[in-house]
Amino acid sequence: MSIAQTGGAGLGRLRQGQRVHRRQRVVRKKIVPWLFALPTLAINLIVILGPSISAGYYSLTDWSGVGAAEFVGLDNYRRLFTEDRSFHRAFFNNVLYLAIFLTLPMIMALVAASLLAPIRRASMVYRVGLFIPYVLPSVITVFIWTSLMDPGRGLGAQLARIGIPWLDQPFLGRTSTVLPSIAFIDNWHWWGFLMVLFLAGMQGIPADLYEAARIDGASRWQEFRDVTLPGIRPTIVFMILMTSIWSFLVFDYIWITTQGGPAGASEVLATLVFKAAFNNFEAGYAAAIGLVMSLLAGIIISVFVFL
Predict the structure, then answer these.
(1) What are the DSSP calls for the chain, one per residue?
(2) What pTM was computed for the model?
(3) What is the residue-level pLDDT of the chain in tens, covering all 307 positions?
(4) Omega prior to 137 cis, within 30 of 0
(5) Is 28 in the same domain as 171?
(6) How far is CA 164 from CA 47, 133, 167, in A?
(7) Could you tell me how far CA 153 lies from the centroid of its own chain?
(8) Which of 56, 74, 113, 134 could form a disulfide with 199 if both were Cys (CB 3.0 to 4.6 A apart)?
(9) Are residues 161 and 285 in the same domain?
(10) 106 and 204: one domain?
């Protein structure tokens, strides 16, 4: 065999080895990760996509939840947007709930986090104390506050007996105060969680930025406005997004406290879905409301993603 033939054969084996290596690298980097993720993707398709498709179908039917479903087209949506005043009120209550939770707990958490950030001694005690309400079950939280708000035996009644009036009122029994009262109860457990997240973000800001701001003569407010807020902006944006979504999906605190009463004053979309499906046996109509809720959540997510 000549030297040229030997060199050509070696070059061919080298190229073949490179092709095999490239193929193995593609399999290892592109295909193997998908194989590991495939079980999780399959579960998500079964658990999420399947029910979503069925909900979309049943929203176009007159269905009680059992038996055969009668196809009615867009009649459920026509009724939802043009006839059902309960839906309109529930939607307005959700918007009001959203407005409350995008302002009050955010401000409280930012102020508390900025006050706690410089503290080093016993700081963990303050954090744990403010975070404990978040880990309490909603049933216990509601029981505590409904007992405190009881107009006959609660905190307001005890204060009225010693000459401090105005708090012995049925806040959960009046249409004008029930929704803000439930939001107050929900916020009591929620704002501590926001505070912990904001505090963690603030502690990740380099101390050099604050020192440079002090050298330039910045006040405490200017440090907060020009250093702290830009430093925790990703955390704030993310929590605004999650708070917006959760405000439209709120159910437990309202259902445990008033079940949407009195006279629908605290009705929200989630409680309306529950009543339509399990009290009125209108599962098709409930599916239509649920899809509208999902659409609203999708719009909120799209606003934050694309703007």
Answers:
(1) --HHHHHHHHHHHHHHHHHHHHHHHHIIIIIHHHHHHHHHHHHHIIIIIHHHHHHHHHTTEE--SSSPPEE-TTHHHHHHHHT-HHHHHHHHHHHHHHHHHTTHHHHHHHHHHHHHTT--TTHHHHHHHHHHHHHS-HHHHHHHHHHHT-TTTSHHHHHHHTT--SS-S-TTTSTTTHHHHHHHHHHHHHHHHHHHHHHHHHHTS-HHHHHHHHHTT--HHHHIIIIIHHHTHHHHHHHHHHHHHHHHH--HHHHHHTTT-STTTT--HHHHHHIIIIIS--HHHHHHHHHHHHHHHHHHHHHHHH-
(2) 0.83
(3) 554 445 455 555 656 656 666 676 766 777 777 888 888 888 888 888 888 899 999 999 999 988 889 999 999 999 999 999 999 999 999 999 999 999 999 999 999 998 888 887 777 888 888 889 999 999 999 999 999 999 888 888 888 888 888 888 899 999 999 999 999 999 999 999 999 999 989 988 888 888 898 888 888 889 888 999 999 999 999 898 888 888 888 999 999 999 998 999 999 999 999 999 999 999 999 999 999 998 888 888 888 777 6
(4) no
(5) no
(6) 54, 27, 8
(7) 34
(8) 113
(9) yes
(10) yes
Distance CA 299, CA 124 (A): 38
The one-letter amino acid code at 101 reads F
Cα 58 to its chain centre, rounded Å, is 26
Looking at the structure, tell me whether residues 102 and 163 fall in a common domain: yes
Looking at residue 292, which CATH number applies to its domain? 1.10.3720.10
Q: Give the Cα separation of 216 and 213 in Å (integer).
A: 5
- The first and second tokens of residue 114, run together, are 């900025």
Domain hosting 240: range is: 82-306
Q: Which two tokens stand for residue 172?
A: 């959960």
